[in-house]
Amino acid sequence: xxxxxxNIDPTTVNKEFCDTGKQYRTAIFYMNEEQKIAALASKKxxxxxxxxxxxxxxxxxxxxxxxxxxxxxxxxxxxxxxxYAFYRANCGRDRxxxxxxxxxxxxxxxxxxxxxVKQRLSKPNSD
Length: 127
Fold this sequence. Notes:
This protein is mainly alpha-helical.
């Protein structure tokens, strides 16, 4: 979950940098009690660290129906690297992450997630 926290602003309600609306709120969705406990513990760790300087408003909720984004949103950063870089820079994302985590900005990226976890996350839930 550290990858998640190191790539978002968990202190704004219904907004994530330039994107505004309830669909842009930060949230962690869990599928079982073990995941819920892990999510709550992770959030508590960051609340107690006060690293964000404001109250964390990220929701922790049970997973429900998941709607995939349209094709043009899938792998947007790969399909549109220049636009994505422009967005990150001009919406304050990189500046914000650097102010929280230091010169390197976010110290985690998608490449830090082991392939088995990435594979598991990309598969629909068969339960």
